[in-house]
Design brief:
Helices cover about 70% and strands about 0% of the residues. By secondary structure, the chain is mainly alpha-helical. The chain has a domain of about 100 residues. Helix 3 crosses helix 4. The chain starts with a helix and ends with a helix.
């Protein structure tokens, strides 16, 4: 089979539900933990958007401080429900890089659209009941490992 075809299938071809479930079982992916992870990610994106002053008012240092403030606020809020983020440094690094690549460093007037699209993307990927491509499954597994391992 052609390498280009395989590459495109990785991103495009929907896997059979049974195959997806095998990946979840093999990697010990638990649905309640994925739901919690989805809630954490979307809560952080919402907090970042709702408290962001805009590109014209925020330099690079301000963006760094803003992300850190949002992370600390979310961490403190989650402690009240016995969810702890302090030791999730790899997860924090990954989500911070994602936020900078997709939100903070993108110059556009429609930051709200970016956040909505980010939340929709992650809710879709982190919904274990959605049909997925191999790329989607690999991403879910990777995020899960960042958070839970």
């Amino acid at each position: 089979m052609d390498k280009g075809y395989e590459f495109l299938n990785y991103f495009k071809k929907i896997l059979p539900k049974e195959e997806i479930e095998v990946f979840y079982k093999t990697h010990k992916i638990e649905e309640p933990k994925v739901i919690l992870l989805s809630n954490i990610v979307t809560s952080l994106f919402t907090l970042i958007h709702d408290t962001y002053f805009g590109d014209e008012l925020m330099g690079e240092d301000d963006k760094e401080k803003h992300f850190e403030w949002c992370w600390v606020k979310l961490t403190n809020d989650l402690m009240y429900v016995n969810v702890f983020l302090e030791d999730k440094l790899i997860f924090k690094k990954w989500i911070k890089e994602t936020c900078f690549d997709i939100f903070y460093n993108v110059k556009c007037a429609e930051k709200e659209d970016i956040i909505i699209n980010m939340k929709n993307l992650w809710e879709t990927i982190l919904d274990m009941n959605n049909l997925k491509t191999k790329s989607d499954v690999d991403l879910l597994i990777e995020i899960y490992k960042f958070y839970y391992i």
